[in-house]
Protein backbone atom coordinates (compact mmCIF):
# COMPACT_ATOMS: atom_id res chain seq x y z
CA UNK A 1 0.00 0.00 0.00
CA UNK A 2 1.18 3.54 -0.69
CA UNK A 3 0.39 6.49 1.58
CA UNK A 4 -1.41 9.53 0.14
CA UNK A 5 -2.06 13.05 1.43
CA UNK A 6 -4.73 15.43 0.16
CA UNK A 7 -4.45 19.23 0.42
CA UNK A 8 -7.48 21.53 -0.04
CA UNK A 9 -9.61 18.65 1.04
CA UNK A 10 -12.84 20.35 2.01
CA UNK A 11 -13.52 21.42 -1.59
CA UNK A 12 -15.21 19.53 -4.41
CA UNK A 13 -12.16 17.96 -6.08
CA UNK A 14 -10.72 17.12 -2.64
CA UNK A 15 -13.99 15.41 -1.68
CA UNK A 16 -14.03 13.38 -4.90
CA UNK A 17 -10.40 12.32 -4.37
CA UNK A 18 -11.15 11.10 -0.85
CA UNK A 19 -14.09 9.07 -2.17
CA UNK A 20 -11.95 7.51 -4.93
CA UNK A 21 -8.92 6.79 -2.75
CA UNK A 22 -11.00 5.20 0.04
CA UNK A 23 -11.99 2.63 -2.57
CA UNK A 24 -8.52 2.17 -4.12
CA UNK A 25 -6.88 -1.23 -3.59
CA UNK A 26 -3.31 0.12 -3.20
CA UNK A 27 -3.76 3.42 -1.33
CA UNK A 28 -4.04 4.33 2.34
CA UNK A 29 -5.09 7.93 2.95
CA UNK A 30 -2.51 9.14 5.47
CA UNK A 31 -3.74 12.70 6.01
CA UNK A 32 -6.44 14.99 4.69
CA UNK A 33 -5.19 18.54 5.23
CA UNK A 34 -7.54 21.48 5.54
CA UNK A 35 -6.82 25.11 6.42
CA UNK A 36 -10.34 25.57 7.77
CA UNK A 37 -11.61 22.21 9.03
CA UNK A 38 -8.75 20.76 11.11
CA UNK A 39 -10.08 18.40 13.83
CA UNK A 40 -13.51 17.96 12.25
CA UNK A 41 -14.74 14.64 10.86
CA UNK A 42 -14.57 14.38 7.06
CA UNK A 43 -18.25 13.49 7.08
CA UNK A 44 -19.09 16.88 8.56
CA UNK A 45 -18.27 18.35 5.12
CA UNK A 46 -18.42 15.34 2.79
CA UNK A 47 -21.71 13.82 3.86
CA UNK A 48 -21.61 11.29 1.02
CA UNK A 49 -18.78 9.54 2.93
CA UNK A 50 -20.98 8.74 5.96
CA UNK A 51 -20.35 5.11 6.93
CA UNK A 52 -17.18 4.90 4.84
CA UNK A 53 -14.63 6.64 7.05
CA UNK A 54 -14.09 7.92 10.56
CA UNK A 55 -11.13 10.11 9.49
CA UNK A 56 -10.77 13.73 10.54
CA UNK A 57 -9.34 16.70 8.68
CA UNK A 58 -5.85 17.50 9.87
CA UNK A 59 -4.09 20.85 10.12
CA UNK A 60 -0.62 19.36 9.65
CA UNK A 61 1.01 17.56 6.73
CA UNK A 62 3.46 14.63 6.77
CA UNK A 63 6.46 15.39 4.62
CA UNK A 64 7.48 11.73 4.20
CA UNK A 65 4.58 10.59 2.07
CA UNK A 66 4.40 8.61 -1.20
CA UNK A 67 2.05 10.96 -3.02
CA UNK A 68 0.37 14.27 -2.35
CA UNK A 69 -2.59 15.76 -4.27
CA UNK A 70 -2.99 19.55 -4.27
CA UNK A 71 -6.65 20.58 -4.66
CA UNK A 72 -6.18 24.28 -3.95
CA UNK A 73 -7.52 27.29 -5.81
CA UNK A 74 -5.39 28.57 -8.69
CA UNK A 75 -2.23 30.33 -7.61
CA UNK A 76 -2.06 28.67 -4.18
CA UNK A 77 -0.17 25.47 -5.02
CA UNK A 78 3.20 27.12 -5.67
CA UNK A 79 3.05 28.94 -2.36
CA UNK A 80 1.89 25.83 -0.53
CA UNK A 81 4.84 23.80 -1.84
CA UNK A 82 7.25 26.56 -0.82
CA UNK A 83 5.78 26.62 2.69
CA UNK A 84 5.57 22.81 2.99
CA UNK A 85 8.54 21.14 1.27
CA UNK A 86 7.84 17.43 0.78
CA UNK A 87 10.44 14.68 0.61
CA UNK A 88 12.22 14.50 -2.75
CA UNK A 89 10.71 11.04 -3.15
CA UNK A 90 7.15 12.32 -2.80
CA UNK A 91 5.13 12.28 -6.04
CA UNK A 92 3.00 15.40 -6.52
CA UNK A 93 -0.17 15.84 -8.57
CA UNK A 94 -1.45 19.42 -8.74
CA UNK A 95 -5.05 19.99 -9.83
CA UNK A 96 -4.77 23.77 -10.26
CA UNK A 97 -3.38 25.62 -13.27
CA UNK A 98 -0.17 26.65 -11.49
CA UNK A 99 2.16 24.30 -13.42
CA UNK A 100 0.22 23.39 -16.59
CA UNK A 101 1.86 25.71 -19.12
CA UNK A 102 5.41 25.05 -20.34
CA UNK A 103 6.43 28.47 -19.05
CA UNK A 104 5.20 27.56 -15.52
CA UNK A 105 6.22 23.90 -15.41
CA UNK A 106 9.65 24.28 -13.82
CA UNK A 107 9.83 23.48 -10.10
CA UNK A 108 13.32 23.67 -8.55
CA UNK A 109 15.36 21.49 -10.94
CA UNK A 110 12.43 19.43 -12.18
CA UNK A 111 9.57 19.90 -14.62
CA UNK A 112 5.88 19.20 -14.10
CA UNK A 113 4.55 16.93 -16.86
CA UNK A 114 1.14 17.81 -18.32
CA UNK A 115 -1.12 15.02 -17.07
CA UNK A 116 -3.33 14.12 -20.00
CA UNK A 117 -2.77 10.35 -20.40
CA UNK A 118 -4.16 10.28 -23.97
CA UNK A 119 -1.32 12.66 -24.91
CA UNK A 120 1.52 12.01 -22.45
CA UNK A 121 1.07 8.47 -21.06
CA UNK A 122 4.78 7.53 -21.25
CA UNK A 123 6.02 10.81 -19.76
CA UNK A 124 3.51 10.55 -16.90
CA UNK A 125 4.64 6.99 -16.11
CA UNK A 126 8.19 8.17 -15.44
CA UNK A 127 7.52 11.54 -13.82
CA UNK A 128 7.43 12.64 -10.17
CA UNK A 129 5.47 15.86 -10.77
CA UNK A 130 2.21 16.01 -12.73
CA UNK A 131 0.06 19.03 -13.58
CA UNK A 132 -3.49 17.73 -13.96
CA UNK A 133 -5.33 19.35 -16.91
CA UNK A 134 -8.29 21.70 -16.55
CA UNK A 135 -11.81 20.33 -16.99
CA UNK A 136 -12.81 22.29 -20.12
CA UNK A 137 -9.27 21.69 -21.39
CA UNK A 138 -9.68 17.92 -21.02
CA UNK A 139 -13.01 17.76 -22.86
CA UNK A 140 -11.81 20.03 -25.68
CA UNK A 141 -8.39 18.43 -26.16
CA UNK A 142 -9.89 14.94 -26.34
CA UNK A 143 -12.29 16.27 -28.99
CA UNK A 144 -9.48 17.77 -31.08
CA UNK A 145 -6.24 15.83 -30.51
CA UNK A 146 -6.73 13.24 -33.31
CA UNK A 147 -7.28 16.02 -35.88
CA UNK A 148 -4.29 18.01 -34.57
CA UNK A 149 -2.05 14.92 -34.62
CA UNK A 150 -2.87 14.41 -38.31
CA UNK A 151 -2.41 18.05 -39.32
CA UNK A 152 -6.15 18.40 -40.04
CA UNK A 153 -6.81 21.30 -37.69
CA UNK A 154 -5.52 24.14 -39.80
CA UNK A 155 -8.75 26.07 -40.34
CA UNK A 156 -10.72 28.00 -37.69
CA UNK A 157 -12.16 25.84 -34.88
CA UNK A 158 -15.40 26.89 -33.18
CA UNK A 159 -15.93 25.43 -29.73
CA UNK A 160 -18.95 25.68 -27.47
CA UNK A 161 -18.99 23.98 -24.08
CA UNK A 162 -21.41 23.96 -21.18
CA UNK A 163 -20.39 23.13 -17.61
CA UNK A 164 -22.21 22.34 -14.39
CA UNK A 165 -21.98 24.51 -11.29
CA UNK A 166 -19.43 22.27 -9.49
CA UNK A 167 -16.87 23.50 -12.05
CA UNK A 168 -16.69 26.74 -10.07
CA UNK A 169 -15.84 25.15 -6.70
CA UNK A 170 -17.68 24.70 -3.43
CA UNK A 171 -18.02 28.34 -2.38
CA UNK A 172 -21.31 29.82 -3.61
CA UNK A 173 -20.93 32.86 -5.84
CA UNK A 174 -23.27 35.19 -7.73
CA UNK A 175 -23.44 32.76 -10.67
CA UNK A 176 -23.46 29.46 -8.78
CA UNK A 177 -26.03 29.88 -6.06
CA UNK A 178 -29.32 28.10 -6.64
CA UNK A 179 -31.72 30.94 -7.34
CA UNK A 180 -29.49 32.35 -10.10
CA UNK A 181 -28.27 29.11 -11.67
CA UNK A 182 -31.52 27.16 -11.60
CA UNK A 183 -33.66 27.59 -14.76
CA UNK A 184 -30.95 29.81 -16.20
CA UNK A 185 -28.18 29.80 -18.84
CA UNK A 186 -25.39 32.21 -19.73
CA UNK A 187 -21.97 32.41 -21.38
CA UNK A 188 -18.80 33.89 -19.87
CA UNK A 189 -15.23 34.80 -20.84
CA UNK A 190 -16.05 34.65 -24.57
CA UNK A 191 -12.97 33.60 -26.61
CA UNK A 192 -10.59 34.33 -23.70
CA UNK A 193 -11.04 31.44 -21.23
CA UNK A 194 -7.82 30.62 -19.36
CA UNK A 195 -7.79 26.98 -20.56
CA UNK A 196 -7.03 28.08 -24.14
CA UNK A 197 -3.33 28.25 -23.25
CA UNK A 198 -2.96 24.60 -22.26
CA UNK A 199 -5.25 23.46 -25.11
CA UNK A 200 -3.10 25.38 -27.62
CA UNK A 201 0.16 23.94 -26.28
CA UNK A 202 -1.12 20.36 -26.60
CA UNK A 203 -2.55 20.83 -30.09
CA UNK A 204 0.66 22.53 -31.28
CA UNK A 205 2.83 19.76 -29.78
CA UNK A 206 2.39 17.61 -32.92
CA UNK A 207 4.29 20.18 -34.97
CA UNK A 208 1.47 21.09 -37.40
CA UNK A 209 -0.11 24.53 -37.75
CA UNK A 210 -3.31 24.85 -35.72
CA UNK A 211 -6.09 27.21 -36.81
CA UNK A 212 -7.47 29.83 -34.45
CA UNK A 213 -9.67 28.47 -31.65
CA UNK A 214 -12.90 30.36 -30.88
CA UNK A 215 -14.11 29.03 -27.53
CA UNK A 216 -17.38 30.06 -25.90
CA UNK A 217 -17.84 28.61 -22.37
CA UNK A 218 -21.38 28.36 -20.97
CA UNK A 219 -22.85 27.88 -17.51
CA UNK A 220 -25.50 25.16 -17.40
CA UNK A 221 -28.20 24.75 -14.76
CA UNK A 222 -26.97 21.35 -13.58
CA UNK A 223 -24.30 20.36 -11.06
CA UNK A 224 -21.87 18.04 -12.87
CA UNK A 225 -20.52 17.45 -16.33
CA UNK A 226 -19.20 19.17 -19.44
CA UNK A 227 -20.66 18.78 -22.93
CA UNK A 228 -18.37 20.31 -25.56
CA UNK A 229 -18.93 20.73 -29.30
CA UNK A 230 -16.19 21.71 -31.72
CA UNK A 231 -16.47 22.08 -35.48
CA UNK A 232 -14.03 22.88 -38.22
CA UNK A 233 -13.63 22.45 -41.97
CA UNK A 234 -12.77 18.89 -42.92
CA UNK A 235 -12.30 17.42 -46.39
CA UNK A 236 -12.41 13.63 -45.77
CA UNK A 237 -15.30 11.24 -45.21
CA UNK A 238 -16.99 10.47 -41.90
CA UNK A 239 -15.58 6.93 -42.12
CA UNK A 240 -12.03 8.36 -42.39
CA UNK A 241 -12.65 10.62 -39.40
CA UNK A 242 -14.06 7.71 -37.41
CA UNK A 243 -11.00 5.58 -38.15
CA UNK A 244 -8.70 8.48 -37.22
CA UNK A 245 -10.38 8.82 -33.81
CA UNK A 246 -10.69 5.11 -33.02
CA UNK A 247 -7.02 4.54 -34.00
CA UNK A 248 -5.85 7.54 -31.94
CA UNK A 249 -7.75 6.41 -28.84
CA UNK A 250 -7.12 2.69 -29.45
CA UNK A 251 -5.15 2.27 -26.21
CA UNK A 252 -7.12 4.78 -24.15
CA UNK A 253 -9.01 3.02 -21.36
CA UNK A 254 -11.40 5.85 -20.65
CA UNK A 255 -11.94 7.65 -23.96
CA UNK A 256 -14.49 6.02 -26.24
CA UNK A 257 -15.75 6.99 -29.70
CA UNK A 258 -19.37 6.12 -30.40
CA UNK A 259 -21.59 6.31 -33.48
CA UNK A 260 -24.55 7.27 -31.30
CA UNK A 261 -25.16 10.93 -30.38
CA UNK A 262 -24.01 11.46 -26.79
CA UNK A 263 -25.37 13.17 -23.69
CA UNK A 264 -24.03 14.05 -20.26
CA UNK A 265 -25.74 11.41 -18.14
CA UNK A 266 -23.76 8.61 -19.78
CA UNK A 267 -20.47 9.94 -18.34
CA UNK A 268 -21.39 11.67 -15.07
CA UNK A 269 -19.90 9.77 -12.11
CA UNK A 270 -17.35 8.04 -14.39
CA UNK A 271 -13.80 8.78 -15.53
CA UNK A 272 -14.89 8.35 -19.16
CA UNK A 273 -14.83 10.74 -22.05
CA UNK A 274 -17.33 9.90 -24.79
CA UNK A 275 -16.83 11.29 -28.27
CA UNK A 276 -19.20 11.47 -31.24
CA UNK A 277 -18.49 12.62 -34.80
CA UNK A 278 -20.96 14.18 -37.23
CA UNK A 279 -20.35 15.49 -40.74
CA UNK A 280 -22.27 18.26 -42.51
CA UNK A 281 -20.98 19.17 -46.00
CA UNK A 282 -17.31 20.08 -45.49
CA UNK A 283 -17.63 20.54 -41.72
CA UNK A 284 -16.80 17.98 -39.03
CA UNK A 285 -18.61 18.37 -35.71
CA UNK A 286 -16.98 16.64 -32.74
CA UNK A 287 -18.90 16.31 -29.48
CA UNK A 288 -17.25 15.23 -26.23
CA UNK A 289 -18.68 14.68 -22.77
CA UNK A 290 -16.95 14.22 -19.40
CA UNK A 291 -17.64 14.54 -15.69
CA UNK A 292 -15.75 17.74 -14.76
CA UNK A 293 -14.92 16.39 -11.27
CA UNK A 294 -13.72 12.96 -12.50
CA UNK A 295 -12.10 12.85 -15.97
CA UNK A 296 -11.90 16.65 -15.66
CA UNK A 297 -10.16 16.58 -12.25
CA UNK A 298 -9.96 13.95 -9.46
CA UNK A 299 -10.57 10.85 -11.61
CA UNK A 300 -7.85 11.87 -14.04
CA UNK A 301 -5.58 12.58 -11.04
CA UNK A 302 -6.11 8.99 -9.81
CA UNK A 303 -5.54 7.71 -13.37
CA UNK A 304 -2.25 9.63 -13.41
CA UNK A 305 -1.29 8.25 -10.00
CA UNK A 306 -1.99 4.72 -11.28
CA UNK A 307 0.32 5.34 -14.24
CA UNK A 308 3.05 6.85 -12.04
CA UNK A 309 3.06 3.86 -9.65
CA UNK A 310 2.48 1.18 -12.29
CA UNK A 311 -0.93 0.15 -10.90
CA UNK A 312 -3.73 -0.95 -13.24
CA UNK A 313 -4.73 2.28 -14.97
CA UNK A 314 -8.38 1.89 -14.00
CA UNK A 315 -7.80 0.83 -10.36
CA UNK A 316 -10.29 2.74 -8.19
CA UNK A 317 -11.98 4.09 -11.31
CA UNK A 318 -14.33 1.30 -12.35
CA UNK A 319 -17.37 3.50 -11.89
CA UNK A 320 -20.86 3.28 -13.28
CA UNK A 321 -22.64 6.32 -14.68
CA UNK A 322 -25.82 7.28 -12.88
CA UNK A 323 -27.34 7.33 -16.39
CA UNK A 324 -31.01 7.53 -15.41
N1 LIG B 1 -14.24 21.95 -9.79
C1 LIG B 1 -13.82 21.43 -10.94
O1 LIG B 1 -14.60 20.92 -11.74
C2 LIG B 1 -12.35 21.44 -11.27
C3 LIG B 1 -11.92 20.75 -12.39
C4 LIG B 1 -10.56 20.77 -12.74
C5 LIG B 1 -9.67 21.49 -11.95
N2 LIG B 1 -10.11 22.18 -10.89
C6 LIG B 1 -9.13 22.92 -10.10
O2 LIG B 1 -8.90 22.19 -8.90
C7 LIG B 1 -8.64 23.10 -7.83
C8 LIG B 1 -9.65 22.84 -6.72
O3 LIG B 1 -10.95 23.03 -7.26
P1 LIG B 1 -12.26 22.79 -6.41
O4 LIG B 1 -13.40 22.88 -7.35
O5 LIG B 1 -12.10 21.61 -5.55
O6 LIG B 1 -12.24 24.12 -5.51
P2 LIG B 1 -13.00 24.37 -4.14
O7 LIG B 1 -14.21 23.51 -4.06
O8 LIG B 1 -13.16 25.84 -4.04
O9 LIG B 1 -11.95 23.88 -3.03
C9 LIG B 1 -10.69 24.46 -2.92
C10 LIG B 1 -10.21 24.24 -1.49
O10 LIG B 1 -8.89 24.76 -1.38
C11 LIG B 1 -8.68 25.13 -0.05
N3 LIG B 1 -7.97 26.40 0.05
C12 LIG B 1 -7.00 26.66 0.93
N4 LIG B 1 -6.51 27.86 0.78
C13 LIG B 1 -7.17 28.41 -0.22
C14 LIG B 1 -7.12 29.69 -0.84
N5 LIG B 1 -6.28 30.63 -0.43
N6 LIG B 1 -7.96 29.92 -1.86
C15 LIG B 1 -8.81 28.97 -2.28
N7 LIG B 1 -8.89 27.73 -1.72
C16 LIG B 1 -8.08 27.48 -0.70
C17 LIG B 1 -10.01 25.13 0.66
O11 LIG B 1 -10.00 23.92 1.40
P3 LIG B 1 -9.61 23.87 2.94
O12 LIG B 1 -10.48 24.86 3.63
O13 LIG B 1 -9.93 22.46 3.27
O14 LIG B 1 -8.16 24.18 3.06
C18 LIG B 1 -11.02 24.99 -0.45
O15 LIG B 1 -12.15 24.27 -0.04
C19 LIG B 1 -8.76 24.51 -8.42
O16 LIG B 1 -7.51 24.99 -8.76
C20 LIG B 1 -9.63 24.27 -9.65
O17 LIG B 1 -9.47 25.24 -10.64
C21 LIG B 1 -11.43 22.16 -10.51
Automatic annotation (TrEMBL):
Protein origin, superkingdom: Bacteria
Keywords: Amino-acid biosynthesis, Arginine biosynthesis, Cytoplasm, NADP, Oxidoreductase
Gene Ontology BP term (one): L-arginine biosynthetic process
Catalytic function, reaction form: N-acetyl-L-glutamate 5-semialdehyde + phosphate + NADP(+) = N-acetyl-L-glutamyl 5-phosphate + NADPH + H(+)
One Gene Ontology cellular component annotation held by this UniProt entry: cytoplasm
Pfam annotation, one family: Semialdhyde_dh
Subcellular location: Cytoplasm
GO molecular function, one term: NADP+ binding
SUPFAM superfamilies found in the cross-reference section: Glyceraldehyde-3-phosphate dehydrogenase-like, C-terminal domain, NAD(P)-binding Rossmann-fold domains
Annotated transmembrane regions: none
Catalytic machinery residues: 135
Matching InterPro entries: AGPR (IPR050085), AGPR_AS (IPR023013), AGPR_dimerisation_dom (IPR058924), AGPR_type-1 (IPR000706), NAD(P)-bd_dom_sf (IPR036291), Semialdehyde_DH_NAD-bd (IPR000534)
PANTHER family xrefs: N-ACETYL-GAMMA-GLUTAMYL-PHOSPHATE REDUCTASE, CHLOROPLASTIC-RELATED (PTHR32338:SF10), N-ACETYL-GAMMA-GLUTAMYL-PHOSPHATE REDUCTASE, CHLOROPLASTIC-RELATED-RELATED (PTHR32338)
Task performed by this protein: Catalyzes the NADPH-dependent reduction of N-acetyl-5-glutamyl phosphate to yield N-acetyl-L-glutamate 5-semialdehyde.
Family, similarity comment: Belongs to the NAGSA dehydrogenase family. Type 1 subfamily.
Protein name: N-acetyl-gamma-glutamyl-phosphate reductase
Top-level EC class: oxidoreductase
Span of domain Semialdehyde dehydrogenase NAD-binding: 3-127
Amino acid sequence: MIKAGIIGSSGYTGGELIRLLLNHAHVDIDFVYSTTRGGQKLTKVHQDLLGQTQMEFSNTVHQQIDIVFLCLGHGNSTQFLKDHPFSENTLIIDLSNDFRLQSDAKFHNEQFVYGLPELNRKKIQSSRLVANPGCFATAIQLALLPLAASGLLQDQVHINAVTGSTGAGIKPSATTHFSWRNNNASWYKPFTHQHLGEIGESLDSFGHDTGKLYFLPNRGNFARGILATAYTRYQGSLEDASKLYTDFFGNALFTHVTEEPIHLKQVVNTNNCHIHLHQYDDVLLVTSAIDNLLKGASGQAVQNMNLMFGFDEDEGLRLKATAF
